[in-house]
C-alpha cells in the first residue's frame, strides 16, 4: 500500500487544463463517446471538477459523487446540468445506471474491490482508468494514491464486476503509464 493524502482537502484541479492530465481527459471522453447514447443515465464516482461526465451532461442524465466540497462546487459551476453529491464514495448506494465511471479513483479507495462488485452489476457499461505500476517516486499523484495496480488488476476489475472488457487504451501520463478501459455487463 502506498502513502495517501486526505483527498477531501487537496486543492481543486481542473485536469483538462493540466499539461500531463489533459491527454487522459481527451482519451477518456473519446472512450465515453464510444458507448453513450442520448438520455443514458451516467454515474461517476470521484467526478472531481466534472472533466469527464460533465462534458456529456447536456445530453445524458449525469450524477457525480465527489469527496472534495470545493471540487464539487467547481463541477457545478462548470457544468450546470451535472448533479453532484458530496460524500465518501464507499457510502454511495449502488443504483441502476447505463454507465458507471470510475476514472483515476480506484487507487484512492480503501476497498476498491467492494466498490467494483457493488456498482458494476448495476451498470450496462463500466469505464475505468488508473495508473499502471505507478513508480513509488511519482510526483503526479501528490501522495494521494493508496494502491499501485498492474495489468492483471486492471483485467480483474471487469471480472469482479461481471463485465467483459470491450475496449482498452494504454498511454503515457507524465512519468507513469495509464490504462483506460470500457466493460460491458455479461
Describe this structure in words.
This protein is an alpha/beta fold and 186 residues long. The protein has one domain (7-185): 3-Layer(aba) Sandwich (Rossmann fold), CATH 3.40.50. The chain contains 4 helices and 7 strands. A 7-stranded mixed β-sheet has the order 3-2-1-4-5-7-6, sandwiched between helices. Strand 2 (61-66), helix 2 (69-78) and strand 3 form a beta-alpha-beta unit. The longest helix has 14 residues, at 22-35. The protein is globular, with a radius of gyration of 15 Å. The termini are far apart. Mean pLDDT is 88; it is low at 1-5.
CATH class: Alpha Beta
Strand order of the largest sheet: 3-2-1-4-5-7-6
CATH architecture: 3-Layer(aba) Sandwich
Shape: globular
Protein structure class: alpha/beta
**Average pLDDT, all residues:** 88
Largest sheet: 7 strands, mixed
Query: From the alpha-carbon coordinates, what is the Rg to the nearest angstrom?
Result: 15 Å
Poorly predicted ranges: 1-5
Helix content: 10-25%
What is the overall number of helices?
4
Distance N terminus to C terminus?
31 Å
Q: What is the N-to-C succession of helices and strands?
A: HEEHEEHEHEE
- Kindly report the name of the CATH homologous superfamily: Vaccinia Virus protein VP39
The CATH topology assignment is: Rossmann fold
Taken together, the total number of domains comes to 1
Number of strands: 7
Tell me the strand percentage band: 25-35%
